[in-house]
Amino acid sequence: MQLQLIAYGIARDIFGHSQLAFSLKKGQSVAELKQALIEQYPEFDRLASLRFAVGEEYRSNDYTLSENDEVVIIPPVSGG
Amino acid sequence: MQLQLIAYGIARDIFGHSQLAFSLKKGQSVAELKQALIEQYPEFDRLASLRFAVGEEYRSNDYTLSENDEVVIIPPVSGG
Amino acid sequence: MINVQLLDIPLSVDNCLQQVQDDGAGGTALFVGTVRNQTQGRSVVRLEFEAYAPMAWKEMHKIAETVTTRWKALHVSIHHRTGILKIGEIAVVIAVATPHRQAAFEACAFAIDTLKETVPIWKKEVFEDGEVWVAAHP
Amino acid sequence: MINVQLLDIPLSVDNCLQQVQDDGAGGTALFVGTVRNQTQGRSVVRLEFEAYAPMAWKEMHKIAETVTTRWKALHVSIHHRTGILKIGEIAVVIAVATPHRQAAFEACAFAIDTLKETVPIWKKEVFEDGEVWVAAHP
């Protein structure tokens, strides 16, 4: 399935794009997306944390992704 | 000895003056001044607290007063 | 740096904050106290704050010194209003800047708690039909 | 009442405070966070705050809702800056008005702690010779 990945902050620097289509097997979870990203961009594994949001909500590792999901890659936040 | 009493807030209302000379025996303490005041103005005994200051500092019950001391009567504070 | 003021003009939160601004501060906590109707069921016309000014200033300064020492505050500013206030006006502003933000909250809470116990300032509520010195009686 | 803002213009503490003013409040606690040089020994030219805006707003709103429920806050206002800031400029202002003042401090401390963990906003320090996303690496 195709996902639309959106990257902010250092995730964008690592990913090299602010938005990019990304392919994953149908029915795969956030954990599997994370794994696939780290394999392709090992720099992601060096971050203090790596979270993902779908529909403007953080999604846990076992969240199942769907075709055309817009997934936002959320590196360690530093607001405030 | 003569003291100069200064009264703020409700203490002034009870005392009837903002400043007044007050006589006490030589060498008497804050506790004795308090006692003398309450005898003369029983309303003071109904306050939630009654403190005294000399030289812009709170003085404890055993503080010995001196001739011509300027003693400020401090009823319950309610700043803030 | 310590800044203590007893003012009979409206207080400015921004002014109080400016006194404690510091590039080295991890955070600044503020407390803003506004006057409200303390006596339920009676309508307050106005409030009057009376201070034994030199000692009030001194006691506020002591609080600021304690905050500086105990919480390693970089800057402490305490501004208290006197005179006649309308309901909703600001009576007190306390600002504390510390290197670590948790300390700023604790220090600010300590400062307002202590101010309410030790600083010789009295609040009178004036009603249509009388007046009351707040907290005078148990 | 909850007021959440994500602004690319300078924040006003007075404005944030006005959002929470209430005659029924026993006290209002505020937190003001200014940007500082986080990386010791290197001189920061400027800071840039980037937000995933819709979700940042939503997460700030969640914090305000939690504060309202858990500390019975009357009003909560959270304003966060985005864009380019100079050292010393205000990045965040949080104001909480509660019936009892101790709750205001606790709620305000909770709000800034949670904001720093959950709100998708990122701070980049720009130096003469490079840049760093703050807190990105362990």
Key phrases:
heterotetramer; A: alpha+beta; Ubiquitin-like (UB roll); 5-stranded mixed β-sheet; 5 strands; globular; C: 138 residues; alpha+beta; 4-stranded mixed β-sheet; 8 strands
What does the model show?
The complex is a heterotetramer, with two copies of chain A (about 80 residues) and two copies of chain C (about 140 residues). With about 80 residues, chain A is α+β, with helices and mostly antiparallel strands. Chain A has one domain (about 1-75): Ubiquitin-like (UB roll). Chain A is about 20% helix and about 30% strand. Chain A has helices spanning about 10-15, 30-40; strands spanning about 1-5, 20-25, 50-55, 55-60, 70-75. Chain A has a five-stranded mixed beta sheet with strand order 2-1-5-3-4. Chain A starts with a strand and ends in a 6-residue tail after the last strand. Chain C is an alpha+beta fold and about 140 residues long. Chain C has one domain (about 1-135): Alpha-Beta Complex (Aldehyde Oxidoreductase, domain 3), CATH 3.90.1170. Chain C is built from three helices and eight strands; from the N terminus they run E-H-E-E-H-E-E-E-H-E-E. Chain C has helices spanning about 15-20, 55-70, 100-120; strands spanning about 1-5, 25-35, 45-50, 75-80, 85, 90-100, 120-125, 130-135. In chain C, helix 2 (about 55-70) runs antiparallel to helix 3 (about 100-120). The radius of gyration of chain C is 16 Å and the shape is elongated. The model of chain C has no long low-confidence stretch (mean pLDDT about 95). Strand 2 of chain C pairs antiparallel with strand 2 of chain D.
